[in-house]
Design a protein that fits this description.
The protein is an alpha/beta fold. It contains 7 helices and 5 strands. Strands 2-1-3-4-5 form a 5-stranded parallel beta sheet, sandwiched between helices.
């Protein structure tokens, strides 16, 4: 049984995981999996900055009032979703560059990381590692005010540390 943070007990999402298209789920599912494993209540939505701008506006403007504390936004290509979301909410926004076909995610990374002063987006690595780290960072922010979640996060880190071998396998 997955243990959940205080917000999760009520079913109220604390983290929003958004992406620009269905194809981004291949990357963003890793953020959702980490949040689930840590027992952090979250929601997952497709919110395109270009194709569904009204949905983006409504989502970002209502996020804080709905109880969200952090938003993780994954986007590929022009990658405007994290920045546009950050411009519409006071919540912390963590951007995950999704690997694109043409430039392998470098275009996404540069689009997300080059925000003008005053509209911050915490930018993570391209792809799976970025999605995982965005979820861990969101959990760390929430753990500042949730001792139970802080213990689960510490246990996760300890399991990760314990999984690293002391010596290399010389047979493989």
């Amino acid at each position: 049984m997955t243990r959940r943070s205080a917000g999760a007990k009520s079913g109220k999402p604390l983290v929003g995981v958004i992406m620009g298209s269905q194809s981004d789920w291949a990357t963003m599912r890793f953020a959702a999996e980490i949040l689930e494993n840590l027992g952090v209540a979250h929601e997952v939505r497709i919110v395109s900055a270009h194709r569904t701008p009204k949905r983006l506006f409504d989502y970002a403007q209502s996020a804080k009032g709905r109880g969200l504390k952090v938003i993780i936004a994954g986007a590929g290509g022009a990658a405007h979703l994290p920045g546009m979301t950050a411009s519409l909410t006071e919540l912390p926004v963590f951007g995950v560059p999704v690997e694109s076909q043409a430039l392998k995610g470098q275009d996404s990374l540069l689009s997300i990381v080059q925000m003008p002063a005053g509209i911050p987006v915490g930018t993570l690595a391209i792809g799976k590692a970025g999605a995982i780290n965005a979820a861990l960072l969101a959990a760390a922010v929430l753990a500042l005010n949730d001792a139970t979640l802080a213990k689960r996060l510490a246990a996760h880190r300890q399991r990760q540390t314990s999984a690293v071998a002391d010596m290399p396998n010389r047979e493989g």
